[in-house]
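User: Can you fold this complex?
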Amino acid sequence: MRRVVPIGPYHPLQEEPEFFKLIVEGEKVVDLEINIGYNHRGHEFISPTLTWDQVPFLVERICGICSDSHPYAYVLAVEDCAHITAPPRAQYIRTIVAELERIHSHYLWLGLAGHFIGYNTVWMWVWRYREPLLDLFELIMGNRNHYAINKIGGARRDILQEDHPKIEKYLDLLEEKNKMFTSAILDDPVILARLENVGILSNEEAIAYGVLGPTARGSGYAIDVRKDDPFDAYDKVDWNMIAFPEGDVLAKAKVRLIECFESIKIVRQCLKDMPDGPIESRVDEIPPGEGIGRHEAPRGEVFHYVRSDGSNKPIRHKVRAPSYMNIASNVVAVKGYSIADAALVLAAVDPCYCCTDRTMVYENGKRKYSGQDLLRLSHEKTEKIRRRYRK
Amino acid sequence: MNIVKILFQYVVFPGFIFTGVVGLFLTWIDRKVTARIHWRVGPKWFQPYADFLKLLLKETIVPEGSSKTLFLLAPLFGIISMSIFAVMLFSMNFNPTTTFIGDLIVIVYLLALPAIGIVLGGSASKNVLAGVGASREMTQYLAYELPFLIAIATIILKAGGSIKFGEIILAQQAGGPFLYSISGVITAVVILLTIQAKLSYVPFDIPEAEQEIMAGPYIEYSGVALALYKLGRAMMLFLLPLFLISLLWGGFADWWAIPKFLLIIVLIVLIKNTNPRLRIDQALKFFWLGLGVLSIIGLVFAYYGL
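Assistant: Here's the predicted assembly.
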């Protein structure tokens, strides 16, 4: 007998709005329907209404976890359009922040993965060691989240020499703890029993679905923008791309855990090699044209496209987040496993719905709302709420 | 007079009220120890009581299309069986001569009732997730009952073939606790893990996996009915370790029972916090092939008097 087990739109598994319709026979998942699009935030619409320098503050609010990746990709796109490069010191600063963000994002996932298999101790411990990293962000950039480090043609803030020891101290702590987590997770037979051979996404399927980031590298599909199309300091430091061929949840976890070591390595080298000099270059105007920016966010490649007509605003800004590609691969990864595994497999791609969703409504094959309509609807809703609470 | 005394036993001490109050306190110990393991602060001691009172004041919602009577009666299975169990446990320990033939079998049945209550409640609530949870509970019950029964048989064998609970305690008072032997240790491990499953604690919280099926059988429960479920679980947390002490560690009629009891509680909480949740098929395999074989080994050792 086929039944539908709903995961979402609101579910304790994933705190963001998404809807996975698991079609099950007994405990076995035979099919999956993915329904996303519950988020409407209108970033791509708002972006052309802002000036070039205001957009980074907007796009870093696309996602709280990748709040460095989106502005990073955006400034790379604009720099590509304007044919400028950031000064070397700024490149190193941006690389350091991006790698620290990768560690914090992977730790977030690791903690949640522990929670999803009912191992709350892992959750709490991992997040405990993620906490000082957020403090470190506050120290370097003034904010625990939404760091606002990226600026067209440079970085907004310098990493001071006196902060280096604090960063190094944290990296030492992190390296030790990451070793502890790696061995604790890879040596625990019960965890292995839950993660191994679960949710296998084969190499061919990974390529067919065009998955990105750790999801792809966990399936032996070794792609990484930082290696394939290096930018900023990534080709000036020594690091390895981590890939495992198995394609199961364990492989994805291993990729993320070992990538944290690589990130630590990159940050250390960057701190050591960071040249002196200015942290920003003067950008007078963005000439007409178009540009793309690619950055390896913790979840995979994030892609930004901008088009300029020579004015002070982008006339088009397109964002593609990695989760959009990764979520679709759940259809093959989840089939044939039990409901208990499904919960884990759906979360294993580290989905980020606020990155993914920028709504479009289609009815009978036609676009129902334009950007203007959505804005109007949003204003009406706000007014309605206001009226209700004013009474 | 006699009826008043019996009623007092079932309702006040050591039955419903006493077991419930102590049980809720133990859930606080569980939460506090868990929180400390997690590097959290944890709740104040009165938190479980506050939770319980709050639930009593909330509206009880019965889902549309469910079997109303069964839905509301199901939580009572656990409470009633645990109250009776408490009275038996205490009277056997403090006055072993009150035993009667086959009371151990009655206890085994009483211990099965909470699980049956959960299965009935989950099935009655007409929710897909509750249905999945109920079927998981049923599977898990079948899984852990096999090693549990073999372990009980081992104890009966060690007590000289007596199925009287009181005589098991008397035998231990005369010849030392059963725990201090190879078969005793094996049986204790088996029963401890079975208790973990009976309490639905990690790694065996499969029927109510929050992240998978959102509390499973309890998903539709609210208000008083949910409070009663929680209370039943709290009472089990109190009584099952006591049952283990009575079976294997010489009963709890002396002060030494308190450190023993706390040790078992801490063990349960530690197992809960150092394991991820198993899948239902893994749990079945673990109980039948792992613990089942282990308990049979214990039985063989017990047969040769080890």
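Residues 191 and 244 of chain B are 7 Å apart (CA to CA). Chain B is about 75% helix and 0% strand.
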